[in-house]
């Protein structure tokens, strides 16, 4: 993740957006503002990983609806919900939908900064894990069906001779597929190849079930 810590403020109150953005900018964050939930959702696909400060009570699309429509982006865009004083029930609903934290308005600045730092610490790890997963998936897509079969068999701990018998191939053919698999993945050792397979979810600890046929 880059050094820049993006905070996305979504609130229909322009004064809240302006004052919050000023406070966060002076605290070292890169603040961005939207005056409505739909405008934020429209721009969301192009946003870098960062934290979202989301007001709950907004016209047209409220904060809860925004969270529900964020789907798979919540991991890289964790949400801190801003609620009215005493509106705990709404905050609980937001947390059930996937929000990471909530603060009551007017929020305590020190408490908000603490929440942001905690979320950014977790976000760094999440982005790194997502990048590794994406890279592994892209590499695994380069494999042919037979090369994937060989990788799964090796993950199960099968020797080349046993794997050849299971797949109905010669040992030499299995060795050829194994060598090609390593080249396509850009790795030098079997442990590296297996690590990519596990990262991408392409192989499991159960390995090869032996039911495949040529």
Descriptive report:
It is built from nine helices and five strands; from the N terminus they run βαβαβαβαβααααα. It has helices spanning 14-26, 37-43, 63-70, 88-97, 109-140, 145-155, 160-167, 171-185, 190-200; strands at residues 6-10, 30-34, 50-55, 79-83, 101-104. The chain is α/β, with parallel strands linked by helices. The protein has a five-stranded parallel beta sheet with strand order 2-1-3-4-5, with helices on both faces.
SSE layout and pairings?
Elements: E1 6-10, H1 14-26, E2 30-34, H2 37-43, E3 50-55, H3 63-70, E4 79-83, H4 88-97, E5 101-104, H5 109-140, H6 145-155, H7 160-167, H8 171-185, H9 190-200
Parallel strand pairs: 1-2, 1-3, 3-4, 4-5
Helix pairs in contact: 3-4, 5-9, 6-8, 6-9, 7-8
Summarize it.
The protein is of the alpha/beta class and 214 residues long. It has nine helices and five strands; from the N terminus they run βαβαβαβαβααααα.
**pLDDT average, as an integer?**
87
Cα end-to-end separation: 44 Å
**Secondary-structure element pattern, one letter each:** EHEHEHEHEHHHHH
Percentage of helical residues? Answer: 40-55%
DSSP strand tally: 5
What Rg, in angstroms, do the CA atoms define?
Answer: 24 Å
Strand count, sense and barrel status of the largest sheet are: 5 strands, parallel
Q: Helices and strands: which structural class?
A: alpha/beta
Number of helices: 9
Q: What share of the residues does DSSP label as strand, in percent?
A: 5-15%
Strand order of the largest sheet: 2-1-3-4-5
